[in-house]
Design a protein that fits this description.
eight-stranded mixed beta sheet; alpha+beta; L,D-transpeptidase catalytic domain-like; 362 residues
Length: 362
């Protein structure tokens, strides 16, 4: 056979061998693919089709998940608390505030549990441990009904967007019924929504029954002997003559360290439902106030910058007061004063007196 024919035969043989290998690899690959998909079925898509997603309104998307509380009977009480929400309400009924009630054990609830443990001379663990639960009892059902009245609806009004607009209002009152009911129940608005998932909050009428926590503070049996404000932990406590705890609550402090006074101060003014004087000199960051160039007086109301109470101290410009945004107390900072939730400021009003010492500790 000629040399050229021999070379061509060898090339054909090599090509045939290569194709045979490819075919064998393809068969093996197909078998492996079938085995893998049998053992690992494709995951179900969890994303809604675009058309379905577009059909869901923004209100439905933002609607919080309902919080269902099992029916409770008065005969079932008193008993130890069973969970974080019950602990929050039980603490609040002792004027030991966990902040805005939200059914979650966060830093403010843990601080309230620690305050209860100190008052009971227990080991401070900030948790619902086996020594704490038997003493932290719930004396009545967790929830109560709040019936919306015509007066509740009549007081609602929009809040001005500028300092000047606020100064021209008749009152700085609640803007919505949700805000009003949440504040009266010492609660975060989201919690009230979760407890009342069927309510359309833009269309609440007089006579509507709402479920809210029953968390009213007890009437104080005595006035406070002194108050202590803890800067690092951001809480305030009022004590009786026997150093018994009368009030514990979260507290916002000044953003700037040099505006946080340390040492003994004294109460010199006690003013429920105060107005508020806006001084441009104290708000250099406000272009509006700098342009106005003179002081404005804002009317009273829960949305007043100092809330529903002002307790002035003997350091000029400093005081303990309420706030229009109670759920942010202890989480945001102020220009220099000690800011409390409105319900805590109102309760503190009942405890303080002119000349009472207020100790501010680091």
């Amino acid at each position: 056979m000629p040399i050229l024919e021999k070379a061509s035969a060898r090339r054909r043989s090599r090509v045939g061998d290569f194709l045979a290998v490819l075919l064998f690899a393809a068969v093996i690959g197909g078998i492996i693919w079938l085995w893998w998909h049998e053992k690992h079925p494709q995951k179900i898509r969890r994303h809604k089709p675009a058309a379905v997603a577009a059909a869901i309104s923004p209100v439905e998307k933002s609607k919080p998940k309902p919080l269902v509380i099992a029916p409770q009977q008065p005969a079932d009480f008193p008993r130890p608390v069973r969970d974080g929400f019950e602990a929050q309400v039980a603490l609040a009924r002792r004027a030991i505030s966990p902040g805005s009630l939200d059914a979650a054990i966060g830093s403010q609830t843990r601080a309230a549990i620690a305050a209860f443990q100190r008052s009971q001379k227990l080991l401070e663990t900030s948790t619902l441990d086996t020594n704490t639960r038997p003493l932290l009892t719930l004396d009545a059902p967790l929830l109560t009904n709040y019936i919306v009245t015509t007066n509740d609806l009549a007081r609602l009004q929009p809040l001005g967007k500028t300092w000047l607009a606020k100064s021209e209002q008749t009152a700085l009152d609640f803007e919505t019924i949700l805000e009003e009911v949440a504040e009266k129940a010492h609660s975060h608005p989201l919690l009230v929504q979760k407890l009342n998932p069927e309510i359309v909050w833009s269309n609440v009428v007089a006579g509507t029954a709402l479920k809210v926590p029953d968390a009213n503070y007890p009437e104080p049996a005595e006035q406070a002997a002194f108050v202590v404000i803890h800067l690092s932990d951001k809480f305030l406590e009022a004590f009786g003559a026997e150093t018994n705890l009368l009030l514990h609550c979260p507290c916002s402090i000044a953003a700037r360290v040099e505006k946080r006074p340390v040492g003994e101060l004294h109460v010199i003014v006690v003013a429920p439902h105060p107005n508020y004087t806006v001084d441009p000199a104290l708000f250099p960051e406000s272009a509006e106030l700098q342009a106005i160039g003179h002081k404005l007086i804002l009317p009273p109301g829960p949305n007043n910058p100092v809330g529903v109470a002002w307790i002035g101290l003997d350091k000029p410009g400093y005081g303990m007061h309420g706030t229009p945004v109670p759920e942010q107390v202890g989480r945001t900072e102020s220009h220099g004063c000690f800011r409390l939730a409105n319900w805590d400021a109102e309760h503190l009003l009942k405890l303080v007196w002119i000349g009472m010492p207020v100790e501010v500790v680091p």
